[in-house]
């Protein structure tokens, strides 16, 4: 999790590994430290928090545009929940 905004194009070092930041990462948000295949689990602080909805590469921003929560419903920008069946 970013403790301050990280600008795209910077390189950061995490646990001895240098990562090129592909997207701006807002304070408090996540970036991928490793490659995550679409459908793969996204892990934060050792616990799975969701599944990748597409391939995510190291340095990319991880948020609702590429992550489906395993715990909370995911809503679209128009406020609908695509996981509930239409009546």
Notes on the protein architecture:
The protein is an all-beta fold. The chain has one domain (1-87): Archaeosine Trna-guanine Transglycosylase, Chain: A, domain 4. It is 0% helix and 29% strand. The protein has strands spanning 11-14, 17-20, 30-31, 41-44, 47-52, 61-62, 67-69. The strands form 3 sheets. A 3-stranded antiparallel sheet has the order 4-5-7, with no helix packed on it. It has a two-stranded antiparallel sheet with strand order 1-2. The protein has a two-stranded antiparallel sheet with strand order 3-6. The protein is globular.
User: What is the domain total for the residues?
Assistant: 1
Distance between the termini: 39 Å
**Order of secondary-structure elements:** EEEEEEE
> How can the largest sheet be summarized?
3 strands, antiparallel
Regions with little confidence, pLDDT below 50 for 5+ residues: none
Task: Return the CATH architecture.
Answer: Roll
So what's the CATH class?
Mainly Beta
What helical percentage do the residues reach? Answer: under 10%
Quote the CATH topology.
Archaeosine Trna-guanine Transglycosylase, Chain: A, domain 4
Number of strands: 7
Write a concise keyword list for the protein shown above.
single chain; 87 residues; 29% strand; 3-stranded antiparallel sheet; 7 strands; two-stranded antiparallel ribbon; mainly beta
Secondary-structure blueprint:
Blueprint: E1 11-14, E2 17-20, E3 30-31, E4 41-44, E5 47-52, E6 61-62, E7 67-69
Antiparallel strand pairs: 1-2, 3-6, 4-5, 5-7
